[in-house]
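Data availability (excerpt). All sequences and predicted token strings are deposited with the supplementary files. A representative entry, LemA protein, is shown inline so that the format can be inspected without opening the archive.
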Amino acid sequence: MIGLAIAAVVALYAILLYNGLVKARQVKEEAWSGIDVQLKRRADLIPNLIETVKGYAKHERETLEQVVELRNKAQAVPAGDVEGRAAVEGMLGQALGRLMAIAEAYPDLKASQNFSELQASLQMVEDEIQMSRRYYNGAARDLNVKVESFPSNLLASAFSFAKAPYFEIENAADRAVPAVKF
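Structure token line:
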């Protein structure tokens, strides 16, 4: 009878651990979906931004083409490829930064209400992307802790739960604090 009670407690504990792993994986998937939605919103804004800038900055064709190319690459990354998507999105973010810097050189463009609204929308989306990335990385951390911690790691390996990659900036230069000179 005692052996049966111990076996029942162990089985119940294993079920709780397994359910905790499933929950952590689902939270991670939901968090990735949040990033994906924000990245899609940004990708949808880019064509309007490009068309607005094209009218003013005819000499900046190379930068405009690079932004479009990187947007297309970002949308072509297979679903679930967090590292690949992070790398392409990092490059796209840099290209968008260069595009905004180009806009500074064109006073008429900066004064354009359409450009101002697009720029404000893009900034809002960038803020949402940053929040979504933090949420995803927190969910990935929670899943990774469960996958690596004893005794849940025994169930994780038995049921093929894997560590989740973090959505990180690949380029070390992007992490550096920019120098401000007056």
